[in-house]
Design goal:
Elements: E1 2-5, E2 25-26, H1 28-35, E3 38-41, H2 47-60, E4 63-72, H3 78-86, E5 95-111, E6 114-121, E7 124-128, E8 133-138, E9 143-151
Antiparallel strand pairs: 1-2, 1-6, 3-7, 4-9, 5-6, 5-7, 5-8, 5-9
The structure holds the ligand CSCCC(=O)/C(O)=C/O.
Length: about 160
Amino acid sequence: MQIWYMEPYACGDRRLPHHVFPPKKISPDQLLQKSRVQYYKVDLDDTVAMKKRLSRVKAEWKVVSSDILTVNDNVPDWEEKLEEYYEPIVRDDDFVCMVVDGSCYYDVEPEEDEWIRCHLEKGDLVIIPKGLSHRFTITPKNYVQIQRFFTDRNGNIQMSK
Ligand SMILES: CSCCC(=O)/C(O)=C/O
C-alpha cells in the first residue's frame, strides 16, 4: 500500500494521485498513528496464510458478514456509483476491506479538510475505524474487486461467511 497526503481541494480527474507539493508519503505506521487505520498485507497466493490472517481479522473485529464487490466501467450507472462512493462517509462501525484484484483508493480525513490517500492493491487489507471520515474511488486501471467485511460493535449474532 502506498500512502500520501493529498493536495487540498483536489479537483479534476479523481483517479490521478493528487499529491501535495512536494509529495509527502507516509508509512502504514504513520498512518496508524495519524488516523488509527490499520493495515495488513495478505498473501492471496498462499491459501493457508490467507485463511489464517482472515480468520484472525474476523475474530478480532467481530465480523458478521462480508461481500465481494467488483467496480469497473461495466457496472450499470457507473458515473453515479463513483459519485456515491466518493461522498465522504463516517461509519458507526469499524470497516474492513481487502483488495482481491485490481486497485483502488481509500481516502481518509483524520482532520478537517486534511485528506490522506491510501492506494490499495491486491492483498492490501485496511481497517477503517468507526468515526473516521473516508471515501472511495478508482485508479486509472478502472477496475477493482474488493472484499468488504462488516463488523458488529454490539456483539450481535455472528453469521459465518
Ligand atoms: C466500493 S466500496 C465503497 C465504500 C464502502 O463500501 C464503505 O461502506 C465504506 O465505508
